[in-house]
Write a structure and sequence with these properties.
The protein is of the alpha+beta class. Helices cover about 45% and strands about 10% of the residues.
């Protein structure tokens, strides 16, 4: 177990206390994609800063999983989301599963799609590197 995993329970405890005291307010939508389902805190800058969280949906949390070193700010991620949709949003728009969208991306059906590490080559490497699809492709096809 690494040091970050030891700090994680304390960080979530601090968030729960701050929510109970009204210091932190959980928004009704994801701060990144505006999804309304399963909003949870994401410690984007690591567990050393327990109250420095984004409230995001579980799907966006899966995208950012393992990237807790502060190399990607919220503005950086929002900059990507201004022009690209993550696969879970495309799946929702088409009414299909995220793995099906990922399969379509890998088979060239969404040209111009990029992985998260393409945007942040100096960021931490994780085994899951999500795809982002250009918004103009989706808005034309849907």
């Amino acid at each position: 177990m690494n040091l970050a995993q030891h700090k994680k329970p304390y960080a979530y405890y601090q968030v729960e206390r701050a929510i109970a005291k009204g210091v932190l307010i959980i928004p009704k939508t994801c701060e990144l994609c505006s999804n309304r389902e399963s909003i949870i805190p994401h410690h984007w800058n690591g567990y050393d800063y327990p109250l420095d969280v984004w409230f995001i949906c579980r799907s966006c949390n899966n995208i950012l999983r393992g990237r807790h070193d502060g190399t990607m700010s919220k503005d950086d991620i929002l900059g990507v989301l201004n022009n690209y949709y993550p696969t879970h949003i495309v799946a929702k728009k088409y009414g299909v599963t995220t793995p099906l969208v990922t399969w379509r991306v890998r088979n060239g059906l969404f040209p111009g799609s990029r992985k998260l590490t393409d945007f942040f080559p100096n960021g931490p490497k994780t085994k899951y590197d999500p795809w982002f699809i250009p918004k103009d492709l989706i808005e034309v096809q849907v």
